[in-house]
Design a protein that fits this description.
two-stranded antiparallel ribbon, 127 residues
């Protein structure tokens, strides 16, 4: 049997598989659509690994408000649309926005293997 590093891509994929499905099909927080919605990491998971599985870092978005709009979209190729998303988030989720700004430099304390095991057991990822 192959031994995997506790921070390997295998455990990242397993932990993501436990965490991300809870956002699918929920209403988009911008427009209310339930078509193909997913969770969006407000602080990118690559920038702050500690917030990758933090519910306060997540916003449910439809494809339009996640990537496709040139008016308001979190991952648009249009810089204006991305700024509009940040402005919307700050205005409509001020407590969540402040918490994220205060905690965006957290350091991850657990391996992805531990995180996956916590999520699978129904515990919060960082406990």
């Amino acid at each position: 049997m192959k031994t995997r590093s506790p921070n390997s891509k295998y455990y990242i994929t397993k932990a993501d598989g436990e965490f991300m499905p809870q956002f699918r099909g929920l209403p988009c927080e911008v427009c209310g659509s339930t078509h193909m919605t997913c969770g969006h990491h407000n602080i990118p998971k690559g920038r702050c690994k500690a917030l990758r599985y933090e519910l306060k870092n997540m916003t449910v978005l439809c494809p339009t408000h996640h990537t496709m709009s040139n008016e308001l979209a979190a991952h648009s190729t249009n810089a204006f649309a991305v700024r509009e998303y940040v402005n919307w988030f700050e205005k409509n989720r001020p407590e969540q926005y402040k918490w994220l700004m205060d905690n965006k430099n957290l350091v991850r304390k657990f391996t992805f293997k531990q995180t996956f095991e916590n999520l699978k057991a129904g515990r919060e990822a960082w406990l």
